[in-house]
Automatic annotation (TrEMBL):
Pfam families: C2-set_2. Residues 55-191 form the Ig-like domain. It comes from Chanos chanos. Gene3D superfamilies: Immunoglobulins. SUPFAM superfamilies: Immunoglobulin (SSF48726). The lineage of its organism: Eukaryota, Metazoa, Chordata, Craniata, Vertebrata. It is found in: Membrane. GO terms for biological process: heterophilic cell-cell adhesion via plasma membrane cell adhesion molecules; homophilic cell adhesion via plasma membrane adhesion molecules. This is Nectin-3-like protein. The chain crosses the membrane at residues 197-217.
C-alpha cells in the first residue's frame, strides 16, 4: 500500500493528512494515526475508511405478448453497488395497474446487485407508454426512461377475431433475416360494420410490403 500513499499535510500547521490513490474495496477498514509530541508523549486516533461503489445501471428490453395474465413488462438493474442501491419506478397512469418485484444479490467482494421487475398485464393500451426507473445511491441518482413494447403475436399472420372499434390503432409488422430487417405499418379503423375479411386483407398486405423490402435489401447487398 505504501506506493499508493502520498503525504499531503503540513507539519507547520499540525496537519498530517495523507492521500490514498487507486483505492479498492480491500482498503476499507479502520486506520490508526499516531503522532508524538516532544515531552508530551505519543497520541493515537482511529479513522474509519468507507469505500463506496457507484452502481452500473441499465434497462433490459422486454417484449411480452398481449394477453390477460401478468407478465414482466420491464427490468431495471443496478449492479455492483456498495452499499446497495434503491430502485423505484415512476409509472404515471399505470400506478394502480402495475406492481414491482425487486431482488437483491450480495457478491463476495461486498457489492450488491439489485434487479427490479415491472409487472403488469400486457395490453394494447400499455404499448408505447413511457415509464421511468429511478435509482438512488449515495454516489449519485439516475433516472432511466423506458418505452413499453407489447407484441400482438408472433408469426407471419395476425388475425383480428372481433370487429370491435377497441382494436383500432397502428399495427407494425417487423421481419428480419440474415440480410437485414424491415418493417411495415398499417392503421386499422373499424366500425361495427367493418367486414372481417377486409381487416385480414389489410394485415396480409402489410406483410407483403415487408417481404418486398427484405428482398430489396438483399438485392442491394448482393447484386446479381
Amino acid at each position: 500500500m505504501t506506493e499508493r500513499l502520498t503525504f499531503i499535510g503540513n507539519f507547520a500547521e499540525n496537519n498530517g493528512s495523507i492521500q490514498l490513490k487507486e483505492i479498492s474495496l480491500t482498503d476499507e477498514g479502520v486506520y490508526s494515526c499516531i503522532f508524538t509530541l516532544f515531552s508530551a508523549g505519543s497520541y493515537e486516533t482511529m479513522i474509519s475508511l468507507t469505500v463506496l461503489v457507484c452502481p452500473e445501471v441499465k434497462m433490459s428490453e422486454v417484449t411480452p405478448l398481449v394477453g390477460e395474465s401478468e407478465e414482466v413488462m420491464a427490468t431495471c438493474t443496478a449492479a455492483g453497488a456498495r452499499p446497495p442501491a434503491n430502485i423505484s419506478w415512476h409509472l404515471g397512469s399505470f400506478s394502480d395497474s402495475m406492481k414491482t418485484m425487486t431482488n437483491s444479490t450480495a457478491h463476495l467482494n461486498g457489492t450488491y446487485t439489485n434487479t427490479s421487475h415491472l409487472i403488469g398485464v400486457p395490453s394494447r393500451h400499455a404499448n408505447q407508454q413511457q415509464v421511468q426507473c429511478v435509482v438512488n445511491h449515495v454516489t449519485r441518482n439516475q433516472i432511466l426512461n423506458y418505452t413499453i413494447n407489447v407484441h400482438c403475436a408472433q408469426g407471419d399472420r395476425l388475425i383480428l377475431l372481433s370487429q370491435s372499434p377497441d382494436l383500432n390503432g397502428l399495427y407494425i409488422c417487423k421481419a428480419s433475416n440474415q440480410y437485414g430487417e424491415a418493417s411495415g405499418s398499417i392503421y386499422v379503423f373499424m366500425t361495427s360494420e367493418t367486414p372481417k375479411i377486409a381487416v385480414i386483407c389489410l394485415v396480409l398486405l402489410s406483410l407483403v410490403i415487408v417481404i418486398g423490402l427484405l428482398c430489396w435489401i438483399k438485392s442491394k447487398k448482393y447484386p446479381g
